[in-house]
Specification:
- By secondary structure, the chain is mainly α.
- It starts with 8 loop residues before the first helix and ends in an 18-residue tail after the last helix.
- Helix 1 packs antiparallel against helix 2.
- It contains 3 helices and no strands.
- It has a domain of 68 residues.
Length: 115
């Protein structure tokens, strides 16, 4: 049995705006390598995803689609930054341990600029 939650479009828009704000905070936290803020953003995103999970497709209007698209783009950008950070940490750890993988052909180390 599937239960759908009929939320007004205004509630969905408000939740999507909150998601965008959290994604912006996450971007700044990633740039500053602020682990506490990154973890807080992850929790907030999970909570907001839970709120959006039961939204009926009929509640998604054009404005909501635009907000969804913006959230997807920002989340993808944050994912890429997160992956670059992880790759840099791995490379540094490999270098400290003398792991030969750092010197394999076509090894890439990405350097991040802080915002």
């Amino acid at each position: 049995m599937t239960v759908t939650c009929e939320k007004p479009a205004s509630d969905v828009r408000a939740t999507l705006r909150q998601m965008l704000a959290v994604l912006q905070q996450e971007r700044h936290a990633l740039a500053g390598l602020d682990l506490d803020m990154i973890m807080g953003c992850a929790t907030s995103k999970a909570d907001l995803c839970g709120t959006l999970a039961d939204v009926d497709a009929a509640a998604i209007d054009e404005e909501c689609r635009g907000l969804l698209d913006a959230a997807r783009r920002l989340n993808e950008a944050n994912r890429k930054v997160r992956n670059l950070i992880a790759a840099n940490v791995s490379a540094r750890l490999d270098a400290l341990t003398g792991n030969a993988q750092l010197y394999r052909p076509n090894a890439q180390v990405h350097h991040l600029r802080t915002a």
